[in-house]
Structure to design on (164 residues):
């Protein structure tokens, strides 16, 4: 969320002359973060940023979010020079279709036959304990695999296969 250069200059001049501090519009920032993450395939159910954060270079704070599954995440927000605002998600997110493709390869090796895995077509925030399920077909047998993250970054998962 960059302010136009002319508005930035006017705001800075007003702050110097009147002693006023310009604050970020937290609702606008929440919307900008939601739009930015949606453009990357992560649709968040909510983003919440604190009110009354100064629009001043060096200001740092955190916004919280939840994805559609209710997994909580955190964005680190920084105000840079020129009153530009940048944010970075602390959490990792994963594309469930990519996870399904990886599972197909691993399960095919284990069973020594072709396996089809269909996971939800979504990106989800990953952290310890996050769970999701995918449909698995081995020959004519249909099952479901439930994966639970054993690490914050999704590098290790518990797998549970059950009849469908």
């Amino acid at each position: 969320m960059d302010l136009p250069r002319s508005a930035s200059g006017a705001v800075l001049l007003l702050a110097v002359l009147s002693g006023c501090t310009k604050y970020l519009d937290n609702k606008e920032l929440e919307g900008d973060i939601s739009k930015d993450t949606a453009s990357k395939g992560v649709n968040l159910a909510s983003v919440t940023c604190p009110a009354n954060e100064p629009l001043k270079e060096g200001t740092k704070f955190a916004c919280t979010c939840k994805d559609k599954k209710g997994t909580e995440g955190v964005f680190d927000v920084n105000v840079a020079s020129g009153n530009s605002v940048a944010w970075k998600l602390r959490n990792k997110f994963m594309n469930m279709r990519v996870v399904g493709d990886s599972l197909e390869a691993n399960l095919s090796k284990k069973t020594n036959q072709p396996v089809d895995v269909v996971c939800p077509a979504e990106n989800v925030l990953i952290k310890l304990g996050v769970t999701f399920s995918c449909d698995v077909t081995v020959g004519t047998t249909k099952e479901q695999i439930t994966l639970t993250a054993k690490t914050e970054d999704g590098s290790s998962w518990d797998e549970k296969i059950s009849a469908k």
Observations:
- The two ends are 47 Å apart (CA to CA).
- The longest helix spans residues 96-111.
- Residues 94-163 form one domain.
- The beta strands are 44-48, 60-67, 72-79, 85-89, 92-95, 115-118, 123-126, 131-138, 141-149, 157-163.
